[in-house]
């Protein structure tokens, strides 16, 4: 089985405070064997793994999912690096201000932390494959938005992008306005949501099924092909960890293949 290492108080100089990292290495991992591993980065790290030091409530169980995919030969072994969020996650995962909710963007320092501190640290201390086709980033809700933002802004670093119920409607759909062409890089993008999924957590309704579908067709119109882009709309899907947990095996099987 895979194993999980927790690094507490990992300092983010771009943000001015420390975060918790959770690194999952696959079964049979041996840094001295000369094998190099692809890496998937995930947000809301406390919700990612089935582990006694994860969130109290439901998690994605990503370690069990990947173990199963590897055993079934649907995926090769990956390292998963999960970064905990903070109580200010809405701001920290926001590339742009959201005036309807009076939320100021703090996404830029978080993105710089990912690019300038976290990824170099991981590539230095673990035997990784550093090319974009072997580096992924994934999250849900606002974590899905910031994952897509990282994939759009740094396609030379993150070639595989997973957005589960991504908040692409944030800031009046600014991601649509910025993502105006194919990156012309190796790309694999997974999108999903509940068909009628919607929530109103910050003072205005967020219709995830409709917005995710619209963003999928937006990318298709920019020239992304079927082998680069996947959309799953789940009937009766909700905005909840259990729903993302349920869809994760399908998501990782496609995204990491």
From TrEMBL:
Organism: Hyalangium minutum
Protein name per the record: Putative esterase
Record-linked InterPro entries: AB_hydrolase_fold, Esterase-like, Mycobacterial_A85_antigen
Coiled coil region boundaries: none
Domain of life: Bacteria
């Amino acid at each position: 089985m895979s194993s999980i290492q927790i690094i507490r108080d990992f300092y983010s100089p771009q943000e001015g405070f420390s975060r918790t990292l959770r690194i999952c290495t696959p079964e049979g991992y041996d840094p001295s064997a000369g094998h190099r591993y692809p890496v998937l980065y995930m947000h809301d790290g406390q919700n990612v793994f089935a582990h006694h030091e994860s969130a109290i409530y439901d998690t994605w169980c990503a370690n069990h999912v990947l173990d199963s995919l590897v055993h079934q030969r649907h995926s090769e072994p990956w390292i998963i690096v999960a970064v905990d969020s903070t109580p200010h996650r809405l701001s920290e995962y926001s590339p742009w201000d959201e005036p309807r909710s009076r939320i100021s963007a703090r996404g830029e320092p978080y993105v710089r932390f990912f690019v300038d501190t976290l990824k170099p640290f991981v590539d230095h201390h673990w035997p990784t494959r550093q090319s974009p086709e072997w580096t992924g980033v994934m999250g849900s809700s606002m974590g899905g938005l910031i994952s897509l933002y990282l994939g759009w802004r740094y396609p030379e670093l993150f070639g595989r992008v997973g957005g589960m119920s991504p908040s692409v409607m944030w800031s009046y759909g600014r991601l649509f306005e910025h993502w105006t062409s194919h990156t012309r890089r190796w790309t694999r993008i997974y999108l999903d949501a509940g068909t009628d999924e919607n929530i109103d957590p910050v003072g205005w309704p967020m219709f995830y099924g409709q917005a995710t579908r619209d963003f999928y067709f937006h990318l298709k119109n920019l020239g992304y092909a079927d082998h680069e882009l996947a959309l799953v709309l789940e009937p009766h899907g909700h905005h909840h960890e259990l729903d993302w947990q349920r869809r994760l095996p399908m998501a990782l099987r496609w995204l990491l293949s």
